[in-house]
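Page 42, continued from yesterday. The earlier attempt failed because a stray header line got pasted into the input along with the sequence. Redoing it now with the clean sequence only.
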Amino acid sequence: MARGLGKRYLSGGQQFWVFRGLCLEVEAGEMVCVWGPSGSGKTTLLSLLAGLERPTEGTVHLSGVRVSHLSEARSADLRRRHLGFVFQFFYLLPNLTAVENIALPLVLAGQSAVALPRARALARRLGLGDRCASYPAQLSGGEQQRVAIGRALINEPTVLMADEPAGNLDAASATVVLDILRGQTAEGRAVLVASHNTRIADLADRVVDLGVS
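This time it went through. Structure tokens are written below.
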């Protein structure tokens, strides 16, 4: 997935590297935790692997395609077809119901005819069957995160990435969300989670520690 990856930023006229020479491969059916303290580059790494940012050096491949040199349009198309991304802060649209938020990627992809039925089925699988008509403001934090996971899964991606998915949840809600993420490996997905949560590290098959030089 990543070979010789490095990212450099400019700050106050000075250059600094977040990391350099990073190599990472995540296999289908495997859960990997990207571990490290705040500022170690976890979110940056996920952004590079998803093609949301370009690396300063090295290459990134997603589902066999080299994404680090694609145009933004082709990179976005590849993400829509192969990648699901779960953000820490949910980013649900407040004027859409839970099921409409889940269905949104299919609607944007021009598959409106199948979007809502597939989203309702996915909502039931995520324990949200009775919350389909609720708006984000009417949902708990754990329910909102499950809606966000449903949105990431609606296109049946081969790779699922999550950035601190339990960071804003209470212990009970976090357990539900983490079990859902772990369960995706049984469906053959590669799951990559950035976190400093020890529970996620314990669930993962491997831990990549960005805090180790």
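Notes: The helical segments are 42-49, 72-82, 98-108, 112-125, 141-153, 171-183, 198-203.
Reminder to self: strip header lines before submitting.
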